[in-house]
Every structure is written in structure tokens, then in C-alpha cells.
């Protein structure tokens, strides 16, 4: 795939969290590559005609001028923003950093589950008021964690949920067996899956097939004691439907790291929905997430130069 007329590809990089050591790591992975770092995408696109490989992002206007571009590596695990129509139709390969945030996302889900399960917000309010408020609360032991999407983060969450002595059920497109999952359900059995779950955790990618997957009909079949947790992409859970379910008591609460509109407007009613914890699409914002992303790119860059298959190639038509 690389151009054999020179020693290595011209690689444009932007969006690094710690540019000096991370760019050095990328350069060391393929010493013959011509690696150039740009602080801003606009600076990168000012010279984009030279780029064969881009690690970062590119606009439709930049793509139109990138005549030598063969491959774009997105730093995101879910490359939604990179899938603009011109990219989808172009021959440029798109890869993602899928899996780089699986560990912190699963930790975030467990945190939200524990906080909701134990009514942590009640303790926080009492502490703010300097008030000793001792009460009976639940435990995760013996409850059912239902995971929609058994990719990297879903599998890591299944392992963590098992450590809390939970029953784990899951839903994925294939019938491939998944470690630490007691039972897997196809999409056709979604309502049965939801009815069994004490926590419904959405880890699936946002695609045409998953947008609006959880709407009014789905919340109505959930247990009134159940909670919904989201941390993959907004739009899979219908915001209006979950708001109605929370306000009318169809479900017990929610932990939402993603929403259909981001940033969530200050006057949005989800902020004050009953027993709801909002976090700002922040579950995987850790230094180690980006470090794992750089590792993925370095491995892919070595594969690219060697003419081998790349990891995490995005099916641009399917959306993930």
C-alpha cells in the first residue's frame, strides 16, 4: 500500500495529547517515514496535498485536496464524525482506535451502576448539608447486567460485572460466544432481554440500525426497578423517551454519559430528571486512552508499510 519510490510514507499527525514523546514513538515505529506534526487541523490541511497518511481528522474540503491520501487513522473509537459523505464515497481507508477506551468506559459504567444502586446522590446531598443520613441501600450482587454491544468495552464490562457477582446477559449482531456472558440474545429478542435486566448498559456503536433502538416501547417493558446506562454514542437511546420513562416512573433511574445533543444544553430537562446522573461524554477521557490509541496507530503504521492488513478498518457503509 505504501509508495515504494521513497523510503517511507509522508505521515501527517495532529491531535496528540503529549506531542513530543508521542511523535517520537510514531517516528520510531517506522524510521523511514516522513512524520510531520500539526497543532491544528487547519495547519495540517494547508499542506494536505503532501500527505499519504493522516493520523487525526480531515474535513470534506481537506479531503478534496488530498490527492495523495491513502489512509486516515481516527483517534476516536467511534468514527462518526469522520464518516461524512465524501469520505464514505472515497477510496481512502479509514481506521479507528476502537478498543482504546474499553477499560475506562467499563469502569465508568460500574461507577454509575454503583452510584445508582446505592443512591449515592443522597449521600452527596447529605454531605453538602453536613447531615448524617444512614439508610438501607441495595447491592449489585445477584442482579442482572444486560449489555447491548459486546465489543471491547462490553466484554470488559462483562468481566467487571462478574467480579461483582452479577448475572450478565448480552446482545450482539453475531452469535459468537462471549466470555463472562451467561446468555446472549439476538436483536429479535430485545424486549425479552430488557425485561430480564436490572441494568441495561448501551455500549453499541451508533449506526442506522441502532439509532433510536431504545424508545418508548422498550422502556415500557423494562422493570420499574431497572436503570439504563449509556456510554457509547448518543442517539441510540431516544432522549425524549428516556425522559418520559424517568418522569413517569417506568424505570428507576439513568446514568447518561452520552446524549442525543452534545453538549447537553443548560436548560435541557434531562439535567433535572429524577434519579439521573449526567456526565459529559467523559468516561474514556484518560491519558492511558490516548496512549493506547497511539499504540494502535504505530502498529497500523508498521502494517501499512509492510503491506499487511490494518487493524480496526471502518466499514464506511455500515458506520463502524
- Helical/strand content category: alpha/beta
Largest sheet: 7 strands, parallel
What ranges have pLDDT less than 50 throughout 5 or more consecutive residues? Answer: 1-6
Overall morphology: elongated
What is the CATH superfamily label of the largest domain?
Answer: NAD(P)-binding Rossmann-like Domain
What count of structural domains?
2
Cα(first) to Cα(last) distance is 22 Å
Name the CATH architecture of the largest domain: 3-Layer(aba) Sandwich
Enter the CATH topology name of the largest domain: Rossmann fold
H and E string: EHEHEHEHEHHEHEEHEHEHEEH
CATH class of the largest domain: Alpha Beta
**Compute the gyration radius: what is it?**
22 Å
Question: What's the total count of β strands?
Answer: 12
Mean pLDDT: 95
The multimeric state of the shown protein is single chain
Provide the spatial order of strands within the biggest beta sheet: 8-7-6-9-10-11-12
Q: Can you count the helices?
A: 11
What's this, in brief?
By secondary structure, the chain is an alpha/beta fold. The protein has helices at 19-29, 41-46, 60-65, 85-89, 102-117, 120-128, 152-163, 190-196, 216-221, 239-247, 287-306; strands at 10-14, 34-38, 53-55, 71-73, 93-95, 144-148, 167-171, 183-185, 199-202, 227-230, 253-256, 276-278. Helices cover 33% and strands 15% of the residues.
Amino acid at each position: 500500500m505504501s509508495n515504494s519510490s521513497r523510503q517511507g510514507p509522508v505521515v501527517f499527525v495532529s491531535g496528540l495529547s503529549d506531542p513530543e514523546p508521542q511523535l517520537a514513538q510514531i517516528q520510531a515505529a517506522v524510521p523511514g517515514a516522513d512524520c510531520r506534526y500539526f497543532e491544528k487541523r487547519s495547519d495540517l490541511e494547508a499542506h494536505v496535498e503532501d500527505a499519504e497518511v493522516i493520523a487525526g481528522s480531515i474535513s470534506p474540503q481537506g479531503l478534496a485536496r488530498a490527492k495523495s491520501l491513502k489512509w486516515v487513522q481516527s483517534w476516536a473509537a467511534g468514527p462518526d464524525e469522520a464518516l461524512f459523505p465524501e469520505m464514505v464515497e472515497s477510496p481512502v481507508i479509514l481506521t479507528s482506535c476502537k478498543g482504546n477506551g474499553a477499560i475506562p468506559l467499563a469502569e465508568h459504567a460500574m461507577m454509575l451502576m454503583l452510584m445508582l444502586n446505592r443512591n449515592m446522590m443522597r449521600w452527596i446531598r447529605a454531605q453538602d448539608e453536613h447531615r448524617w443520613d444512614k439508610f438501607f441501600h441495595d447491592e449489585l450482587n445477584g442482579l442482572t447486567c444486560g449489555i447491548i454491544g459486546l465489543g471491547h468495552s462490553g466484554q470488559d464490562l462483562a468481566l467487571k460485572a462478574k467480579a461483582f457477582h452479577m448475572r450478565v446477559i448480552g446482545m450482539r449482531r453475531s452469535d459468537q460466544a462471549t466470555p463472562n456472558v451467561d446468555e446472549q440474545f439476538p436483536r429479535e429478542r430485545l424486549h425479552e432481554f430488557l425485561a430480564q435486566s436490572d441494568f441495561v448498559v448501551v455500549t453499541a456503536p451508533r449506526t442506522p440500525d441502532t439509532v433510536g433502538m431504545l424508545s418508548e416501547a422498550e422502556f415500557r417493558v423494562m422493570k420499574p426497578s431497572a436503570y439504563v446506562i449509556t456510554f457509547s454514542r448518543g442517539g441510540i437511546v431516544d432522549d425524549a423517551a428516556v425522559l418520559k420513562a424517568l418522569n413517569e416512573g417506568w424505570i428507576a433511574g439513568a446514568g447518561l454519559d452520552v446524549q442525543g445533543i452534545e453538549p447537553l444544553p443548560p436548560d435541557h430537562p434531562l439535567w433535572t430528571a429524577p434519579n439521573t446522573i449526567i456526565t459529559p461524554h467523559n468516561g474514556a477521557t484518560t491519558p492511558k486512552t490516548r496512549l493506547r490509541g497511539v499504540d494502535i496507530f504505530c502498529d497500523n503504521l508498521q502494517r501499512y508499510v509492510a503491506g499487511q492488513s490494518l487493524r480496526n478498518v471502518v466499514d464506511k457503509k455500515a458506520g463502524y
